[in-house]
């Protein structure tokens, strides 16, 4: 016997009933159940904006990088006009993966099976990815084959945000800017250089890719605002010390969490599901480095950024860790890295990690950061190793029949959310504890997985019912939908 | 039949190198990490590049990420290695608590170059890890070691591993490969 509802007529369970954000209880089924996993693949990943890769991985015409969007393999390509395209990596004839290389350069993908070829050369085809060559076309199809209909499937929308390339399969999806909202401040800090130069970063060559036996949401949730796990999970690396200050110094630098809540650190949780472990008013300068020249470099970068941002009227915080709903997590400071949790099954995930560096970084800085990132993150990273142990065995031990009857507890700071100046967001009540971000993530997740329509999803996102102040979105969203009045929202948690 | 002195010399050298590498495997599998660190030279360099799926003809240019410049699984010296030992010795390193069962198999040992007091050695490795119950990893590949004679034994100066996986199928690399 299970405690979950039976499938509804829509073919998917009402997963919203498994996510009780008012009580702060979430069923373990959402991490284990096959049907729910299928509903995620159907209703969430094909509608969400997903991170595909970094523009600097494909600098030249013909460059491609193989990636995944949910359960689908894709190719990020740069065509000969310099435009970025995201193409489904599956032949339209019998589905063969037309490209099994991780990266390379070509203006044409020829399928090994029967040799249909697809071109991204605009002088040969009108649409990049269009079907260009079909062996024995006349004999095989006469005049019947409409080649323009059988090109590689293209992502409906592609957005290059300062080098971060996102795509969406759904032509009805809101624009990237609307989807991201004021969470963009964290993406800015990720994509901009340490001295504030806009989009001044590039990806190091080499993406860590590895398999874990855990549900993908454990990963997203962890980076979304679970600063609570650090003290226990990362006790060993913290005891050893791998940070900028040298041996024995803290892994993020000594200033991390300085002052905590008393210094104004709060988590930021967006109604649209995004979340960050900090807030943009929480300003901590870059860490102190053991080596003087590195220290000088980062002090100078901080000062330059401070001057630039203050001139623009911007706040200086917002380094994360953070998660862009649903599965792109990142940290914009020390380290500076992007993670995507690709779903494989309810209990298996392929994790990818990219590492960013300032384009203008001198050789010494570039090499120091590279070594720090590798000893910190990825499967060999002294911090990340211990995370995987938790996610894997949390997944495994939630599979049991008895275990599944008991929900997880997400009650930290329940009803103690505080108002935020950023549209559609609230803050945690505490700098380290506080699960408001996770509650919002799963709430949004359930709305997608239950396949609510875009108008419904948009309407729900427009009012934040988590504080008495009911911070409404200030921006007029595409399609002319006006800001809703707070009274439209029922069922909000008791506010304090 | 006259004894080929040069060949005999080389066989003895190979025997000495093999004995050293087998002893190293024993120390690791017996979790005597602090003793193992003494087998590494102070200027030890360790690198394990990422391996990519690339086209025939592009393997030299693209197949592996480059030490010193790009992202690898490991690209570090003895200092970081000893931090890893310190981490294992805290007893709080959950990735290895409870401790894993590990066997390092070293085989196909050949002397690539003899430039005493240093030699270049190539071999294959198979590292087997089993932990908790059914969690089992096989890490297999080629290895190139540069060894230096120190007294009547050796130290590892440089080690490059080519792990035969592109997507790592183990959840982490919390053991010494
Ligand atoms: S499957 Fe690609 S050409 Fe037939
Ligand atoms: Fe962690």
Automatic annotation (TrEMBL), chain A:
Bilayer-spanning residue ranges: none
Residue ranges of every copy of the Rieske domain listed in the record: 49-130
InterPro entries membership: ARHD_Rieske_2Fe_2S, RHO_NdoB-like_C, Rieske_2Fe-2S, Rieske_2Fe-2S_sf, Ring_hydroxy_dOase_asu_C_dom, Rng_hydr_dOase-A
Record's keyword annotation contains Metal-binding: yes
Keyword field: 2Fe-2S, Aromatic hydrocarbons catabolism, Dioxygenase, Iron, Iron-sulfur, Metal-binding, NAD, Oxidoreductase
Region named Disordered: 239-272
Record bears the keyword Nucleotide-binding: no
Cleavable signal peptide: none
A GO term, aspect molecular function: oxidoreductase activity, acting on paired donors, with incorporation or reduction of molecular oxygen
Family annotation (Pfam families): Rieske, Ring_hydroxyl_A
Family: Belongs to the bacterial ring-hydroxylating dioxygenase alpha subunit family.
PANTHER family: 3-PHENYLPROPIONATE_CINNAMIC ACID DIOXYGENASE SUBUNIT ALPHA, CHOLINE MONOOXYGENASE, CHLOROPLASTIC
Protein name, entry field: Phenylpropionate dioxygenase, large terminal subunit
From TrEMBL, chain B:
Assigned keywords, A-Z: Dioxygenase, Oxidoreductase
Single GO MF annotation: dioxygenase activity
Record bears the keyword Zinc: no
GO biological process: 3-phenylpropionate catabolic process
Pfam families the record matches: Ring_hydroxyl_B
Family: Belongs to the bacterial ring-hydroxylating dioxygenase beta subunit family.
Protein name: 3-phenylpropionate/cinnamic acid dioxygenase, small subunit
Annotated organism of origin: Blastococcus aggregatus
């Amino acid at each position: 016997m299970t405690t979950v509802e039976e499938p509804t007529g829509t073919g998917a369970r009402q997963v919203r009933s498994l996510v009780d954000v008012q009580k702060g209880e979430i069923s373990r089924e959402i991490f284990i159940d096959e049907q729910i996993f299928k509903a995620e693949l159907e209703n969430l990943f094909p509608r969400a904006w997903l991170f595909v890769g970094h523009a600097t991985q494909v600098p030249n015409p013909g460059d491609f990088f193989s990636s995944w969007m949910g359960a689908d393999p894709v190719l990020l390509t740069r065509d000969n006009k310099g435009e970025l395209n995201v193409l489904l990596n599956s032949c339209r004839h019998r589905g063969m993966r037309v490209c099994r290389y991780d990266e390379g350069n070509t203006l044409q993908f020829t399928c090994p099976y029967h040799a249909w070829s697809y071109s991204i050369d605009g002088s040969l085809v009108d649409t990049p990815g269009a079907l260009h060559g079909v062996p024995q076309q006349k004999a095989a199809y006469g005049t019947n084959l409409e080649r323009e209909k059988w090109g590689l499937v293209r992502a409906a929308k592609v957005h290059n945000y300062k080098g971060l390339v996102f795509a969406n399969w759904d032509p009805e999806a809101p624009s990237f800017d609307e989807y991201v909202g004021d969470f963009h401040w964290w993406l800015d800090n990720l994509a901009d250089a340490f001295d504030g130069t806009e989009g001044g970063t590039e990806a190091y060559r080499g993406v860590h890719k590895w398999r874990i036996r855990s549900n993908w949401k454990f990963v997203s949730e962890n980076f979304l605002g679970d600063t609570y796990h650090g003290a226990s999970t990362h006790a060993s690396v913290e005891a050893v010390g791998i940070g900028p200050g040298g041996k024995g110094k803290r892994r993020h630098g000594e200033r991390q969490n300085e002052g905590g809540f008393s210094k104004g650190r709060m988590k930021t949780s967006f109604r649209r599901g995004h979340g960050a472990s900090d807030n943009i008013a929480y300003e901590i300068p870059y860490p102190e480095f053991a080596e003087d020249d590195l220290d000088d470099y980062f002090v100078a970068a901080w000062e330059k950024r401070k001057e630039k941002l203050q001139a623009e009227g911007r706040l200086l915080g917002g380094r994360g860790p953070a998660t862009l709903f649903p599965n792109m997590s990142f940290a914009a400071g020390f380290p500076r890295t992007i993670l995507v949790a690709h779903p494989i099954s309810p209990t298996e995930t392929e994790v990818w990690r990219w590492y960013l560096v300032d384009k203008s970084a001198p050789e010494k800085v570039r090499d120091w950061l590279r070594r720090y990132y590798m000893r910190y993150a990825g499967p060999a990273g002294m911090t990340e190793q211990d995370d995987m142990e938790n996610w894997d065995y949390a997944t495994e031990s939630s599979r049991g029949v008895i275990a599944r009857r008991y929900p997880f507890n997400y009650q930290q700071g329940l009803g103690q959310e505080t108002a935020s100046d950023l549209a559609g967001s609230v803050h945690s009540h505490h700098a380290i504890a506080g699960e408001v971000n996770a509650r919002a993530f799963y709430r949004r997740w359930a709305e997608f997985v239950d396949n609510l329509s875009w108008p419904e999803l948009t309407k729900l996102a427009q009012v934040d019912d988590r504080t008495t102040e009911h911070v409404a979105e200030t921006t007029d969203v595409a399609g002319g939908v006006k800001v809703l009045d707070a009274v439209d929202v029922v069922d909000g948690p008791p506010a304090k | 039949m006259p004894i080929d002195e040069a060949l005999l010399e080389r066989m003895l050298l190979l025997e000495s190198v093999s004995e050293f590498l087998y002893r190293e495997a024993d120390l690791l599998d017996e979790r005597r990490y602090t003793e193992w660190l003494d087998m590494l030279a102070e200027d030890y360099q360790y690198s394990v590049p990422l391996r990519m799926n690339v086209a025939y003809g592009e393997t030299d240019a693209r197949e592996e990420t480059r030490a010193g410049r790009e992202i690898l699984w490991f690209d570090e010296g003895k200092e970081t290695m000893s931090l890893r030992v310190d981490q294992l010795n805290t007893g709080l390193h959950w990735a290895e608590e409870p401790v894993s069962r590990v066997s390092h198999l070293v085989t196909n040992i050949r002397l690539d170059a003899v430039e005493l007091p240093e030699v270049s050695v190539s071999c294959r490795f198979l590292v087997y890890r089993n932990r908790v119950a059914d969690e089992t990893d096989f890490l297999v590949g080629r290895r190139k070691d540069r060894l230096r004679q120190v007294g009547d034994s050796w130290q590892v100066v440089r080690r490059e591993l080519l792990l035969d996986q592109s997507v790592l199928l183990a959840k982490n690399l919390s053991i010494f490969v």
